[in-house]
Amino acid sequence: MPQRVTVAKVADIPEGGAIVVNVRQKDVAIFRINGQFQAIDDMCPHMGASLSGGFVEDGCVTCPWHYWRFRLSDGAWADNPKVKLGAYPVHVVGDEVQLELPDL
After folding, report:
1. Residues 4, 14: contact at Cβ < 8 Å?
2. Which of 1, 54, 66, 84 has the fewest CB atoms in 10 Å of its CB?
3. Alpha carbon distance 36, 3 (integer Å)
4. Are the beta carbons of 34 and 25 closer than 8 angstroms?
5. Could you tell me which residues are beta bridge partners of residue 45?
6. CA neighbor of 31 nearest in space, from 83, 99, 82
7. How confident is the model at residue 103 (pLDDT cuts 50, 70, 90)?
8. How many alpha carbons lie under 13 Å from residue 7 in its C-beta half-sphere?
9. Domains (ranges, CATH) in the chain?
10. pLDDT per residue over 8-44, tens digit each?
11. Where would I find the beta strands (DSSP E) of the chain?
12. Residue 53, Ramachandran bin (φ over 0: left; ψ between -120 and 50: alpha; else beta)
């Protein structure tokens, strides 16, 4: 059964921005775009850049180093969906932001 983990307060994540949280020894970027929260693994698989520093357009975050684009909805590389990052459902409960994590 998936587990929910509180990782931030709603006010911690600015509209149009992102934060990085460390969950289970992995960095996860949480984005707040148009009032919606989405979370994917923070590290680009190409060269290891932090995706939280990229820019978001049309539902994709673009890596700031070499411009690989990843869909926030499912973590898939926009140019080759066979390559995927972890993507995590985000829940807002009151003023808390929670990630839904798979069982270990």
Report:
1. no
2. 1
3. 20
4. no
5. none
6. 99
7. confident
8. 30
9. 3-101 (2.102.10.10)
10. 999 999 999 999 999 999 999 999 999 999 999 999 9
11. 3-9, 18-23, 26-33, 36-41, 55-57, 60-62, 69-71, 76-77, 80-84, 87-88, 90-93, 96-101
12. alpha
pTM here is: 0.94
Query: Residues 53-84: pLDDT tens digits?
Result: 999 999 999 999 999 999 999 999 999 999 99
Task: Centre a 10 Å sphere on the Cβ of residue 87 and count the other Cβ atoms it contains.
Answer: 18
| 30: number of Cβ within 10 Å | 23
Tokens standing for residue 96: 């808390």
Amino acid letter at 98? Q
* CA nearest neighbour of 44 among 69, 73, 81, 72: 69
Q: What span, in angstroms and rounded, lies between the C-alpha atoms of 92 and 7?
A: 11
In the structure encoding, which two tokens stand for residue 65, read together?
Answer: 């180093």
Give CA–CA dist 19/22, Å, rounded: 10
Question: Rounded to whole angstroms, what are the CA distances from 38 to 13, 47, 81?
Answer: 11, 22, 18
